[in-house]
Design goal:
It is a single chain. 40% of the residues lie in helices and 22% in strands. By secondary structure, it is an alpha/beta fold. It is globular, with a radius of gyration of 18 Å.
């Protein structure tokens, strides 16, 4: 089986050779940083429609984690185009963080359409190094479809725990490696992941993010594996839930 996977990886690499050359020259990355936000903003419209029920159930108790003054301070890590804003409760104070500043014009559109929220800051930073966000300053941190493209997931989780106040909550939706290693989805994830990462700005379909969350020693972890109703088969395996610091 591993020989077949290697063969498929080789064939895919040959097909993708022009992109590999552009990536080696440092050109492809700058192209992706500029145009990937446009793709994501359009993709998230479809994703929200298909995942609307899951998102509404996930965020239904988010107000329970408001701080002592009944304010809800929320940090969205990898905010992208702001696709989650409509699911947050009225009056929520939102800080947006993303490593790619080119998302900001798409973010502004969703901010204008969701004026039930108060927007604090847009921070350009990596999820694994959020030094501008103070310790214990957030009631809730949200992260959706992000850690697939971050190399060091334990560092992201460590940062999330740092910025959360005691008793605060971390909400997540992430596509992951298929938990069934013998499945066809798992087979094609292994075979096509190198090319997938190149096309989708470093995104990997082989992340075992649930293990990092289980190892993070949250006081409470509510996590489910689901099959998302999306057309991108390699990204169908998902985890969804929240963890309490």
């Amino acid at each position: 089986m591993s020989v077949i996977i290697l063969l498929l990886q080789f064939i895919a690499a040959i097909i993708m050779l022009p992109l590999h050359i552009l990536n080696y020259l440092g050109i492809w990355d700058s192209v992706m940083k500029k145009y990937f936000p446009l793709f994501i903003s359009r993709f998230c419209e479809t994703y929200n429609r298909l995942m609307d029920g899951q998102k509404r159930r996930l965020f239904s108790n988010i107000s329970d984690f408001s701080g002592p003054s009944n304010e809800l301070r929320l940090l969205e890590v990898g905010c992208g185009s702001g696709a989650n804003f409509k699911y947050y409760p009225r009056g929520c104070k939102v800080t947006c963080l993303d490593i790619n500043p080119n998302f900001q014009k798409f973010l502004s559109k969703n901010q204008a359409e969701n004026d039930h929220l108060t927007y604090e800051h847009f921070v350009v930073a990596s999820a694994d190094n959020m030094t501008s966000i103070a310790d214990g300053s957030m009631d809730v941190v949200v992260c959706t479809l992000l850690v697939c493209s971050v190399p060091n997931i334990p560092a992201v989780v460590k940062e999330v725990k740092r910025v959360l106040r005691p008793g605060g909550a971390f909400y997540f939706i992430e596509h992951v490696a298929d938990i069934d290693e013998s499945s066809w989805i798992s087979f094609f994830q292994k075979a096509l992941n190198p090319s997938w990462k190149l096309i989708f700005d470093g995104c990997s379909v082989r992340k075992t993010t649930w293990k990092d969350l289980e190892n993070a020693k949250f006081s409470e972890l509510n996590l489910r594996h689901i099959t998302a109703p999306i057309s991108m088969t390699l990204a169908k395996p998902h985890i969804i839930g929240y963890a309490v610091k």
